[in-house]
Amino acid sequence: MFIMAIYEPLCEISTHFPELLGMDSLAGSFRSLGRAAYTLYVSPEHEHLHVDVAKLTGYDPPLSLQPNLDATLDMIADNVMPLVDVAKQPELDSATLVRLSGILIQFTDYVPSLHSIQTPYSKVAGLQQEIQRRAREAGPQTLADQLEVALQQSDGDIAEALWQLFITSRLHARWLDDAIIGDLPRYSRDEKLVLMKEWHDSLAAFKERGDGLSQDIGGDTYYAWTHALAKVALTQLPAERSVATRVGASVFHGGTQIMHTLVHKIAHPQSVQSNHSVAAGYGNAVGAALVHGLQQPQAHASAVL
User: What predicted TM-score, i.e. pTM, was given to this entire model?
Assistant: First the structure.
């Protein structure tokens, strides 16, 4: 397989979520969010590597499907939540939540003010390679499988695990977050395609073929982790819960439908025609299940008192 040794970073980089996000004022974070929203409608020129990946794989029958949603949530409760260290729940201030929102809605290569954020490539490569290793042994990995790996690599830190799944899956689905991956090797275009294809083949799909659209399993997977991270960050992790955080959580809950309705139909069509609604539904449900699990120890403690 291609590039199997974990890459070691050459310099010291911020390694932990949310510290790598807390680098700007609230006003600066809102400017970045505004720029991210603007580029949803007016996107800069960029490579469409995922279009080539779709030509290679997009219309093939999926190797393996995700379990149904009820089964997925059972796996989250039974296999994943025991790995979560509930003491490791960062409190995210308003600037961090706004900055995170900008990253979640748009590729960071489009937003220069977000480039100060750096997550080390060693973590991205480590997660990618372990998921692919397990896929070779046991078949394409489900959301629960992927989260299990991420939690093991983050010592039970749910925020860190979700961040790494989000940024790793989006990089390998679209390759438009180069600027915030510290010490990312200078891969050639062909090398990137190999990495993206291998990632695609390691993931369980969300939908059967048959609607005439691309599978885009990599795209579906990053959509799912976007929704799961947004749900946990805006529901469970705000330092101060408010009307703004509730509204933000609601907007992200329906974010994929908003994208399909307002952006793809009005501003510009998808470069790879695929419906990510099923994946978004999984992500929302997984995020809600994680929030429920994180709140159980608090509820239990209150009952005891």
Answer: 0.85
